[in-house]
Task: structure prediction
Amino acid sequence: MQINGSGGCFEERTYEIEPAVAWQVGLLVAAEMAVKVEARDDEKRLLNGTILSQEKTFFTGKQKQKLFTFSVQGLDQGSCQIILDIRKERIEVYSLKSQNREAMEFFDNFDKKLKEYVSSIICPSCKAKISASVRFCPECGAPVK
Ligand SMILES: [Zn+2]
Result:
């Protein structure tokens, strides 16, 4: 479900993965998107911070800052809900254009990273099960193409 408004967007998506994995992957994506973390609670899986948006302010041309909230809630049987809320500090009621760019970017990156995270391969040298994203086997050091 996606709700646009308030100069940003609120979105929740359900994933069939362990909440701990979603939390780790989400933290990686937030770091890549240069989210400035203000509060992080690993137990509740809640991250609060700010993100610079692509939009520039009309008068100064500076990049606008948006509030960023990311949270993972565990559901039944190894699935979880990801909640992302990105919005401006001040509500701009006159703006009708969609402002969900950052949220879209987050979920795009998340899906990509998750694929890397969960996909594993067999090392051609020692036959260990390793991540598909590594260049060298962490078990035996053999190069993995
Ligand atoms: Zn190996």
Q: What stands out?
A: The chain has a mean pLDDT of 86.
